[in-house]
Amino acid sequence: MADLYSQLNVARGASEAEIKKAYRKLAKELHPDKNKDNPKATERFSKVTQAYDILTDKDKRAQYDRGEIDEEGNPKMPFGFGGGPGGRHAGGGRGGFRGPNGEPFEFGGDAEGISDLFEGLFGGAGRRGRAGGGGPFGGFGRRPPRPQKGADAGYRIEVAFEDAARLSGQRVTLGSGKTLDIKLPPGVEDGTRIRLAGQGQEGPAGNGDTLITIQIKPHRFFRREGDNIRLDLPISIDEAVLGGKVRVPTVDGPVMLSVPKGSGSGKVLRLKGKGFTAKSGARGDQLVALMVDVPDDPDLARFLETWPGRGKGNPRVALGV
Predict the structure, then answer these.
(1) pTM of the model as a whole
(2) With contact defined as beta carbons under 8 Å apart, do 208 and 227 qualify?
(3) CB within 10 Å: which end of the chain, N or C, has fewer?
(4) Tell me: the pLDDT tens digits for 285-297?
């Protein structure tokens, strides 16, 4: 399997920002939605996403750079055991051991020979291990490795702002071409991960899992503040002075909002239960900040020039000016 850095086309010492930039470029090119007839592209997309997830995790990246885990995030076998072509290991004979003059030990393909060697070195620990399972090298060379589950697969999906607030279901296309419908969890935010058990790569001990990373798209006029949503709402000068009902957009659709008489710019009104769903299951609110739109109107200007209240009072008195 290719080196994780090579998969993302970045240097080994690349910064996190460079890794993210490279991933975004590749994800756009390889996304399954754009390559429905190209299984190789979707398979590469899965590998690129897995590489991104490992290299943007500070601890996992350090483990990978030290050679402690492989490209799929699985621990590597210690001591160099694992075998090369023909069942031989690095360093000569089948066990990779050399004698005092550098000649390779050959054990004749008999695992018993390896155990006997450790018996001589460790005072019979090998035989005790075979008989009773004890000793530091009990059953060395005889016990087959435990079957491993398949590797986990990683995907990153973009979710519309309104969908995230309403916890609307999402459809995900896996590298295999299989589509899954997933539910967004309460408290979802940018970077939330959803684990789909058994939906990863196949393995002797069963399938691995699929990890879905949620990326919430920014909205053109809504802003998230914790579990609340903030909206700057323009109102006309007559609506501000005289008050009245105005139509307001929310993530659940437009609603009518009552604007009190004499409302100025910056006044905040609250729409209950129109925000994001918290982990507790309760929904936040929508905070509506009024922004008075003053028109360039000659008739309004003439009226204010003769308005009896002109020049009376100081709206900046609280600022000390």
Answers:
(1) 0.54
(2) no
(3) C
(4) 999 999 999 999 9
